[in-house]
Amino acid sequence: MDFQLDDAARERLEALRAFGRETIRPLGIERDRAGSPTPPDHPFFREVLARGLTRPPAGSDEGGTSLGAAVWRVVAGQELAYWDRGVSSSLPGPGLGGGPVMSMGTPEQQKRLLGPFRDMTEPRWAAFAMTEPGAGSDVARIQSRAVRDGDDWVLNGAKLYSANADRADWIVVFATVDPALGRAGHRAFIVERGMPGLSEPKPEKKMGIKAYASASFTMNDLRVPADNLLGSEARYESRGGGQRPGAGFKGAMQTFNATRPAIAANAVGMARACLDEATAFARDRDRLTGRHRDRLERMRRRIRAAWLMCLKAAWLADRGEPNMVEASMSKATAAEVAMEAASLGMEVLGAVGAQGEHLIEKLYRDVKAMDIVEGTGQIQRIVMARHLVNYPRDA
Ligand SMILES: Cc1cc2nc3c(=O)[nH]c(=O)nc-3n(C[C@H](O)[C@H](O)[C@H](O)COP(=O)(O)OP(=O)(O)OC[C@H]3O[C@@H](n4cnc5c(N)ncnc54)[C@H](O)[C@@H]3O)c2cc1C
User: Fold this and answer.
1) Which one of 183, 235, 240, 302 counts the least CB within 10 Å of its CB?
2) Contact at 8 Å (CB) between 346 and 353?
3) Parallel, antiparallel, or unpaired: how do β-strands 214-225 and 152-163 relate?
């Protein structure tokens, strides 16, 4: 495995770093104090597009440099979250909605849905909505219903915490044709902004990462054309007719295998920010006692180990090799490391951290989400343990 950055990637990383320092960190602090997400018409988003910061490095064509696309995503994701994870999650793009469209969508759907994101003049967002008031970790319990009616599907239900749903052109919504079927009943639909029956997505209150919206919405007799069933009905049928078990569920899980290393990389970036804040404070105040030295050094080691796990998981993804265990391992480890680093930072700063004005206090609130999103730490451990004892994947 070779993770050396080539010149194009190094240059792009330097640009991200400079933009992070000058713009992303201050905006994240501003939004944290305001307690609300960056409005979609904020000039920041146009500036991001104009600078081409959301594109992979020149010549890479999503991964054609010496670094693959997945490895580049963790490298960039780590850097952006170092400066502010909330702002980095608010950046225009298909976001979590892009994964299922790529893994489940027909070529026509991929072109129709992802094509507009190539336009770098207008900020656009998409979203992913699985979580419901009664179904978080156990996604098999989703209750949003999908009923076929002629050429349409009719959706009813409620979704929670969908990132950027308040500004999304479309949202990948998971619903079930029959809750008794569990995962086998899942279907993924494209719900477009303005469709009758879709309530106005409402940003939730969050303890941290406030610069982006996690929005809730309801669907009341929302009619979706059959073309908006992701992957078309054939995807969900078995060869012999009837249901193909868990095609919708598997599509969501494939998405997680691709995105968990990126979430892990965000956590590593945030842990690095905690370590830098704590180290600078200890150095400036002459507080580098033996106890702190030991803690800071432990964090540096742990951050390095978590980072290597992210790179390995992404490297496997670039090679098209199975990475489920590595993806879960990186996510579980990096989130733990980030929480520990934030806690350590608070300890090193003592009362100064607790006053609520220092970045470390914001990081302390921000990092918890990294343990929750895309499967909590417990869920990652279940995924890995099932693999360890060879438990059937669909059971
Ligand atoms: C900032 C943020 C952004 C999010 N973005 C999105 C998004 O874009 N789209 C989306 O669909 N969802 C999103 N979510 C929702 C997120 O995926 C869920 O919060 C997560 O899956 C956990 O579900 P829950 O909150 O209902 O907790 P629960 O599932 O109720 O879990 C509560 C606790 O029980 C533990 N637990 C649950 N089951 C088990 C088990 N079998 N064994 C041991 N422990 C268990 C969990 O680890 C957790 O500690 C987001 C959440 C947050 C906080």
Assistant:
1) 240
2) yes
3) antiparallel
Ligand 1 atom, smallest distance to 377 CA = 47
Among the ranges given (193-202, 319-328, 332-341, 360-369), the one the predictor scored with the smallest mean pLDDT: 319-328
In sign, the C-alpha dihedral spanning 271, 76, 203, 227 is: negative
* Residue 187, SS3 per DSSP: strand
Report CA(372)–ligand 1 centroid distance (Å): 5
CA 129 to chain centre: 12
Task: Indicate which residue's Cα is closest to atom 42 of ligand 1.
Answer: 378
Show the domains of the chain with their CATH numbers: 101-244 (2.40.110.10), 250-388 (1.20.140.10)
Sort strands 214-225 and 145-149 into parallel, antiparallel or unpaired: unpaired
Catalytic site includes residue 374: yes
| Structure token digits, residue 213 | 């919206």
In this predicted model, what pLDDT tens digit does every residue of 131-179 receive, in sequence order?
A: 999 999 998 899 999 999 999 999 999 999 999 999 999 999 999 999 9
Ligand 1 atom with the shortest distance to the CA of 95: 8
**Residue pointed to by tokens 């933009």:** 19
Q: Supply the pTM of this predicted model.
A: 0.93
Q: Tell me, what's the pLDDT at 251? A: 67
